[in-house]
Amino acid sequence: MPNGIYEEGQIVDSPGLAQFIQQILQDNKIKTKDVATAVPMREAIIRIIPIPAELDEMELRDMVLNHEASLYLPYPREEVDLDYQKLGYFVDEDGIEKVQVLLVATKRDITEVYVDTFRQAGLNLQVLEINSFSLLRTLREQLRQFGPSEAAVLVDIEFDSTEIAIVVDGVPQFSRTVPIGTFQMQNALSAAMNLPASRDTELLLTMTIPRTQADPTHTGATGINPGMAALMRVLGELSDELRRSINFYLNQTSNLEVVQLLLAGPGGGIAQLDEFFTQRLSLPAVQVDPISTLTLEVDKEMDLPPVKRPGLGTVLGLGLRVI
User: Fold this and answer.
1) What is the DSSP letter of 64?
2) pLDDT tens, 220-234?
3) What are phi and psi of 39, to 5 degrees?
4) I need a labelling partner for 120 at 20 to 30 A (CA). Which of 6, 174, 196, 312 fits?
5) What is the number of other CB atoms lying within 10 angstroms of the CB of residue 184?
6) Which of the 8 DSSP states describes residue 67?
7) Cα separation of 270 and 90, whole Å?
């Protein structure tokens, strides 16, 4: 995507993005007008709130959207778009039956710019949701292997950020966005190799992380080339942020164990990245493969090597929502 259109998770040039989308559709001879898309998790407010179980559906809706929501939003109620989903029932410490409700909100100006962009592109926006929800839908069967006291950490490595979601029973309980993505990795790699900065991350995706981790600050002694040393420094920073996020969440909860990292997104398929995080964090890490998870048949002519498959999770999840 050209520079200056979509930056730091936000659409900054709506007409430019609409034109870019039109060109993609034209080049690929796509006639479909109905589309589904997702906003970054950083643009959303996600909360799980308890509501009295005796309320009927209309009372519950009014309670969540018009009363409870304002207690959890950092913005005035009239400035956000809201949705919610009932999760399950439980009995609180006072013996009162309640239902957990997943509340999701985005600022209305964010929603409107997405709607307007696709309108300018001549498309009908049918679905707008949070990208981590789309990814969770793709990985639904994979997440079912974990018990109610086991948490998985979804690590979605995107272009200029990594979205971290700690998931229990298929529901994100904690989320955080870290400003480290494939762009930052690519820039570190390019600078160390005296190459010009680029938004094209193809070079990064050809790299293989060493199995044996050495101190990247002593390249002469370890034999790691400067480019790999620079890349590993950035990955080290990302692993430190992951550790902080996991420890923060665990300090707020009890009787819960983090059992696996799920690596997704365009950067999630870098060769042996799973082994890097497993060693750094002492947690088993796997690179997700949405094609295999959903048992999809792929045309042999399609170029879908393992390094690119983790980046398909969100778009396939949106497809599942539509069908």
Assistant:
1) I
2) 434 578 899 999 999
3) -100, 150
4) 312
5) 19
6) I
7) 41
